[in-house]
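User: I've been going back and forth on whether these two constructs are worth ordering. Before I decide, could you fold them both?

Assistant: Sure. I'll take them in the order you sent them. The first construct and its structure tokens:
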Amino acid sequence: MRRLAIIFSPQCPANVYFIDKIREWAEPYGVDVKVINAFEDQERARTFLTRTRVGFDRHMFITVFIDDRWIPGHPGNPKFKQDLLKELGGSEDG
């Protein structure tokens, strides 16, 4: 089973909405979704984030990994959804 990790900062109240949307988009693919609060589980979040430029040259409020591979972008951007679904093996139409 593929794994999808959503790492988020509770600073942005819209992240609850984005987490729900990402779960909805990934549901048809049978993906195991884990949600990691970067404030409450810093060590676990760091295991993902240290492999990216997140925190170095861009801020992080929410970011996603599929099978440990970073999916750049923000879920509010339509390109993010397209890239996410492409990585899961589908199309934007599901």
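The second construct, handled the same way:
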Amino acid sequence: MAKLKEGNDISLNMLQKKMLPALTLPMSKDCPTALRYALAKYDAGAVAEAYENLYELYIQGLLEN
């Protein structure tokens, strides 16, 4: 379960908040298939964008287990 590191003033959208607890670190660059299936009721483009944004936070060192 990933979470934002404390002390950051980062705002997540609803979809990113849903995704974050389902993520494990280290994150892969591509959105895991299981996560895409779990979020199938959402627009695929929105899921991809939300994952990309979370991946960027991971690369910047702003996510932790």
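Notes on the second construct follow. DSSP finds three helices and two strands in the chain. The mean pLDDT is 95.
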